[in-house]
User: What shape does this take?
Amino acid sequence: MTVTNRSWRLRGAFIAAAASVVGVGLCAVPAQAHTPTWSVSCSEVTLDLTAYNAGVTNTVTVSVDGKDILPAETFGSSISKTLPLGEHTKPLTVHLVVKAGDGDQFSKDDTKTAPVCETPASPAPPATKPPKQTPSAPASAPADKPSSGASSPAAAAPAPSPSASAPTDLAETGSSSSTPLIAGAAAVVILAGGGIMFAARKRRSSQN
Assistant: This one.
């Protein structure tokens, strides 16, 4: 009888230890099953809530600087959403509130900051080569002022004299081509004069 009682005691102790281990494990499983994953970037908020109890009502709310961008929305075992953020010039405070229907220990209240998106730098314009500069011609030395004794170009080249430009008339000699004409005219004048004198004398003699 003593051996039997001891064996039963050992069995009872083993069963109690096993039950305690199973109970702890069962209590730990729900806590590990709820997975409220979320992330915040400069342009959007990403939600990925999984492994929640589908038999109860769960809600999630997202607000930015106190304004709801996702009002309280109910979900079952999971929910996945991407919420865009508008353009902003300063960091934004994003607030997430998850209320699990199977206990506040599975709820989540968290805050993250959305940074300002960096604007891409505009590409620098390609460097332009400076135009080639042509060497300037050396300045010519100023011409010396002509002295008072130097002759001007006009004076250096004297104007041609009439004798150089056209032949002058030579003194008429016996070899001139107009001599016979002049001699003939003189003879006519002499003959005419002689005829006039002869006629005058004849008239005088007839009157006497």
